[in-house]
Amino acid sequence: MKEAVLIAGVGKRFGEVQVLQEVTLSVGEGELFGFIGADGAGKTTLFRILATLLLPDEGRSEVLGLDVVRSYRDIRKRIGYMPGKFSLYPDLSVEENLRFFASVFGTTVEKNYELIRDIYSQLEPFKTRRAGKLSGGMKQKLALSCALVHRPEVLFLDEPTTGVDAVSRKEFWQMLGRLREQGMTILVSTPYMDEAVLCDRIAFMQEGRMLALDTPTGITTLFRKPLFAIRARETWRLLCALRASSHAASVYAFGSALHYTDNRPAVRADELLVALQADGFTEVSVSVIQPGIEDTFIALMEEKQGSDHV
Amino acid sequence: MSEPVIHTDKLTKRFGDFVAVDALSLTISSGEIFGFLGANGAGKTTAIRMLTGLLAPTSGKATVAGFDLYTGAEGVKRNIGYMSQRFSLYDDLTVRENIRFFAGIYGLTDQAIKEKSRQLLETLKLVAVADTRLASLPLGWKQKLAFSVAILHEPKIVFLDEPTGGVDPVTRRRFWDMIYEASGRGLTIFVTTHYMDEAEYCNRLCIMVDGKVAVLDRPEAMKRHFGVESMNEVFIQLARPHRTE
């Protein structure tokens, strides 16, 4: 596979703070690649370096075989970038924004309409509305249309779904899937772990470093302990009790269940069940489960940081 | 049964022809963790702005923390706490300055501010960084401080508007520990979130669709009713936005 993006030993610091440290990876042409991490993980800084808006302090990056520092002009024509912060013109209408971005890139909306039709058609009933007056979900669709209007070869989407509700998030990822089918390379960042499974490959980012890089299924093999899902009638009391237990290696709430690992090597689900029932818990269920992306992310975070979290 | 901390009866807000919140009726009791969910544009923000005394309702009745929304909006504001991801603390102020600033806003006396600051710094184990600017602290510490500052004046209820957006999965869970502890002490929690796993942690949930309450129940009951395994599935079935922009 040809590389669309190459990142080799990239580092960046702002004053005292090292915001990116030795990030190395490459993204193949046509790949949908996800950067998963919280605020402060360095995702935005990395995207700004790749979009030629920020100079790296260390390392080398290429987009479409072009160096991000030397060939920034050529790169800019061939990529689309949707920043995390809404950056369209609030005083221009939906249609004016789109036409403006098309003209900046020396093209027209009509010429590339096919590419954006899927997304833009949902906005067309409101095309005379000022962009500043759109709802969150609509703003996001307009921003994506504007980032696509010049038919870029690589698309950078920085947290496109932050603050967006679960339904709109699902629709947005369906749109990304269709763009990917058309062969576009897409780099997307998100704090939502559930979106990671929709990517071809993902990189876990935490405090400027890459914790892991693999396919969504591959990454979960980094979780090496047996994982149990435990439920009982009083979830909060269960959480406190398990945390206080000397056998507990980790206890985290996951929706209506707790995900638990034990520091005894061969403990069985039925043993845990009996112990909890003896402690007075009712409606207890314990089952062995496959770790998910979020379980793995947490485990790697803990491994990295030890106990320095408050 | 304790007195409700929030009681609304057909609370409504119109903007011109547009009904942003349509006959919202809620009763929330002391110590309850109440989740308020909905798609973007479903009316959540407008409802919260009314319940926090920032926006006058068009019609309907409501009392919050013992004050009437029409005649006692100032009383409401003094007796609630509020925290959101977007607006919480000032990064350019130190930990101590942030505490002093917000305590002052809520009208605590100088003596009380001094005492509260000392207590808070000790409980949160922030004494060593009391004079450090907030910007350089880890996110988890900031979140803890933001929550504690929002309830410094001992309100009956705290509104948390997407408090965990963009936060890492461990910090997000630690934040919920604080919510549970505070609710155990009798504080009422009114929380919005886009994380559907967090919806499961609430005692009761209300899902808004097009300005109306689509469903209000315990999470287990909702899942049973819709015959699904997770709140995410409930939300997706229910919250598809029909409203024209």
Taking Cα atoms only, what radius of gyration of chain B do you get, to the nearest Å? 18 Å
Through-space gap between termini of chain A: 44 Å
Helix/strand order of chain B: EEEHEEHEHHHEHEHEEHH
Q: How does the helix and strand content of chain A classify structurally?
A: alpha/beta
List the strand order in the largest sheet of chain A: 6-7-8-3-9-10
Biggest sheet character of chain B: 6 strands, mixed
Radius of gyration of chain A: 23 Å
Please state the average pLDDT score of chain B.
91
End-to-end Cα distance of chain B, whole Å, is 42 Å
Largest sheet of chain A: 6 strands, mixed
Count every helix of chain A, treating DSSP H or I runs of 4 or more residues as helices: 10
Could you characterize the architecture of this molecule?
The complex is a heterodimer of chains A (310) and B (245). Chain A is α/β, with parallel strands linked by helices and 310 residues long. Helices cover 32% and strands 28% of the residues of chain A. Chain A contains 10 helices and 14 strands. Chain A has a 6-stranded mixed β-sheet with strand order 6-7-8-3-9-10, with helices on both faces. Chain A has a 4-stranded antiparallel β-sheet with strand order 2-1-4-5, covered by helices on one side. Helices cover 36% and strands 27% of the residues of chain B. Chain B has helices at 44-51, 73-78, 95-105, 110-123, 139-150, 169-184, 196-199, 219-226, 231-238, and strands at residues 4-15, 18-29, 33-38, 59-64, 67-68, 80-84, 157-161, 188-192, 204-209, 212-217. In chain B, the strands form 2 sheets. Chain B has a 6-stranded mixed β-sheet. Chain B is globular and about 50 Å long. In chain B, a hairpin with a 2-residue loop joins β1 (4-15) and β2 (18-29). Chain B has 9 helices and 10 strands. Chain A binds chain B through residues 16-17, 37-41, 125-126, 129, 134-138, 159, 162-170, 191-194, 206, 235-236, 252-256, 294, 297-298, 301-302, 309-310, and chain B through 38-42, 125, 136, 138-141, 144, 162, 165-171, 173-174, 176, 180, 194-197, 200-201, 219-220, 230-232, 235-236, 239-241, 244-245.
